Amino acid sequence: MIKAPTNQASTNQAYIVDALRSPTGRRKGGLSHVHAIDLGAHVLKALVERNAIPAEDYDDVIFGCVDTIGSQAGDIARTAWLAAGLPLNVPGTTVDRQCGSSQQALHFAAQAVMSGTQHVVAVGGVQTMTQIPISSAMLAGQPLGFPDPFSGSKGWRARFGDQPVNQFYAAQRIADHWGIRRADMEAFALESHRRALAAIEAGHFAREIVPLEGVERDETPRATTLDKMAALEPVGADYPSITAAVSSQTCDASAALLVVSEAALKRYGLTPRARIHHLSVLGDDPIWHLTAPIPATRAALKKAGMSLSDIDSVEINEAFASVVMAWLKETGYDPARTNPNGGAIALGHPLGATGARLMTSLLHELERTGGRFGLQTMCEGGGQANVTIIERL
């Protein structure tokens, strides 16, 4: 039996009224010239225009963004709202939980509504990876343009020694531990592209995408082949199974959702599309780095009084193919209902925007298929994972 929501101290509920996103622009593609602030402003403006809430009545804007330097600096949640021409009185704050930043932004918004302290919150994320590229140093755990954050820390070295904090290392380690071959990951990646291309052709993303600068559809999926994937060199000698083909794509994108209270539903005559049924976050070993979705999913289902048989669709970020494949091996969930329209290998991983993008696609997939419950999770820097369960209404 499914329990009542367990995340709030009171009976306050948090509802999703709307969810939308930009297309995912490939690196140096159609959105590469768009300033990060304007990319975020695009989805915020559309969100406000599509919903019958006066813009000055919004309580807050909470956005995820990683690498808040250059065009992404200066509290982009606030600057994007202002660049959209929206009221000065509405504040904004930017969240960095690494890859899970905008999923955490959704959690903060839902918690604000559940607490009764806010009633209307715009939530989302933005990342322009063409302009602020992720580097090999970043992937190795070093913020772009800065020294290794772990060097010189006596406490870190006392606890973890000199073990590498490196996503490539973790992805290879996961593949080795769970017996996932390179060929298996390439087949998984090919299916991600196939699903994404099929979803585009079928118009599954049409309702969730707000075109920008002439870009009307996701640019990142491609009709590749197993032979092309097999010909790629590994990203490094120490990671023989990890290539660009089995890794998430860098891209430029933004996404936004509208989260409101029941009081706001009544006041503005809104129709909710989903209810936040559960939200949680869990830490795991930072050296394994990418495994946290496994224990986080188990913990979330236990807290919610659910099992995966209750879940109609799952979105788990395809940071690397081995991450999702290990999760599937451990949970036994149906691969056909996991990232059914493709994942980040095909659709891209715009860091701070990915959590909101996944939730947007999850909600629309539940609506398209008539599913009731959807679960979203993703691996995050430092060995962390958020889990969100929504109920379609």
From TrEMBL:
Protein EC: 2.3.1.9
Protein's UniProt keywords contain Ribonucleoprotein: no
Keyword ATP-binding belongs to the record: no
Domain Thiolase N-terminal positions: 15-262
Gene3D superfamilies: 3.40.47.10
Superkingdom of the organism of origin: Bacteria
Keywords: Acyltransferase, Transferase
Domain Thiolase C-terminal: 271-392
GO molecular function, one term: acetyl-CoA C-acetyltransferase activity
Annotated active site: 99, 349, 379
One Pfam match: Thiolase_N
Entry-linked NCBIfam families: AcCoA-C-Actrans, PRK07801.1
Family indicated by similarity: Belongs to the thiolase-like superfamily. Thiolase family.
PANTHER family: ACETYL-COA C-ACYLTRANSFERASE (PTHR43365:SF1), BLR7806 PROTEIN (PTHR43365)
Protein name listed in UniProt: Acetyl-CoA C-acetyltransferase
Organism: Zoogloea dura
High-level lineage: Bacteria, Pseudomonadati, Pseudomonadota, Betaproteobacteria, Rhodocyclales
